[in-house]
Amino acid sequence: MSHNQLTGTLKPLACLRALRGIDCTNNSIGGTLEPLQSLAPVLREVFLTNNKLAGSLEPLRGCTALQDVVLDSNELTGGLQPLQGCTALQALYLRRARRSLTL
Amino acid sequence: MLQFTDGSSPRVWAARVAMILSTLTSLSAHLRKQARPRREEKLRANHEVHTHNAVQDKSHTQSDPESSIEEEPGGLTLVQELGEAINTPQRLDEQDPAAALDTLPDDLLLHVVVACGGEWLIGVPELDAVSALGSLCKDVLQQLSRLLPFVYRRVHGLTHGRTHGPWRVVLLFTGEPTATVVDEAWRGHVRSIDARGTTLTPAVAKRVVPELLGVGCSLLDLKLEGLQLGIGSWRQTFGEAAVCSTALLELQLDDCGLSGPLPELNLPALQILWMSSNQMSGGLEPLMRCTALQELDGRDKRV
Question: Does some domain include residue A5?
Answer without folding.
Answer: no
